[in-house]
Amino acid sequence: MAALERLRAYPVKGLDGIDLEATPVLEGGTIAHDREFALFDADGDVLNGKRTDRVHALDTDFDPETTVLTVDPPAGETRRFDLDADRETAAAWFSEFFDEDLSLERDASLGFVDRREMGPSVVSTATLETVASWFDGMTVEGARRRMRANIEVSGVAPFWEDRFVGEDAPAFEIGGVRLEGITPCGRCVVPQRDPDTGEPIAEFRDRFIQQREETFPEWADAAAFDHYYSLMIITRVAESDRGNTLRVGEPVEVV
Description:
It holds the Pfam family MOSC_N. This is MOSC domain containing protein. GO terms for molecular function: catalytic activity; molybdenum ion binding; pyridoxal phosphate binding. It comes from Natrinema versiforme JCM 10478. With about 260 residues, the protein is an alpha+beta fold. The protein has a domain at about 115-255: M1 Pyruvate Kinase, Domain 3 (Beta Barrel), CATH 2.40.33. About 15% of the residues lie in helices and about 30% in strands. The protein is built from 4 helices and 16 strands. The protein has helices at about 85-100, 125-135, 140-145, 205-215; strands spanning about 5-10, 20, 20-25, 35-40, 45, 60-65, 70, 80, 100-105, 120-125, 150-155, 170-175, 175-185, 230-235, 245, 250-255. The strands form 4 sheets. An 8-stranded mixed sheet has the order 2-1-11-10-14-13-12-16. Strand 1 (about 5-10) and strand 2 form a beta hairpin. Helix 2 packs across helix 3. The longest helix is centred in the middle third of the chain and has 12 residues, at about 85-100. The two termini are about 15 Å apart. The mean pLDDT is about 95.
C-alpha cells in the first residue's frame, strides 16, 4: 500500500534537512519549517549549494520547538544558535565561515523555496533506490540527501511520481490532503556531490541522463519533461487543504 514514508524539511536553505513525523501545510502552500531561513549576501543573493560546495563541510541540525540550530564545523567547537532570538550572532558566524558578509533572514509564512508559487517536492522510495543503484558506492540515504525531497512515498514503483505531471495527469491525496503535480524538478550541480564531503562523482550528469532515459516509465508524459536531467516533482497543495497536517504513515491515493 502506498504511504507517506518520510517528511523532510530544510530549515536553513542549503544546509541539512530534518525528519518530521508530522507537519502542517502553510497558507502559502509549503510545509512548515522548509527553507524557513536563508543566508543572503550584501547584494541580496542567496547562499546555497549551487553557489558553494562549502555547505557540505557543515553538519547541522534544527529543533523546531526551540528554533535552535546546531552547527558542527569541520574544525572547532559545535555551535548552537537560537534563530528566533539571535539570528545576528548566527549570521556573524556564517559570515566568517563562508568569508563574506551575510545576513540570516526568516520567512515563516512561505519559506525561501525556489518556486514560491508552488509547494512540496515529492519522490518515491523506489526512485531513490533505483538512482542509488546507478552509481557505485551510493546508498539510498545518500541519494535521499542528494535529491532533498520534502515528501517520500513508499509502496509504489520507481518513478511513480512522474505520472502526476503533464496533460491530463491525475492528482493524489495524502491523508485527505490533495496534491497536484506541477512540474518535474530539473537538477542542478548539488546531486553530483557527496553530501558529506562535497566530492563530485565523475561524469555524474551524463550517466544520470543515460540511465534516466533508459528507465523512463511508459506511464509518464514525456512532453512534460524538458530534459532527462530531472528527478522528483514539484507539487501544489489545494488551497482548501492548506492548514491541514501531513503525517508519516498516512495512506497515499491517486485521485
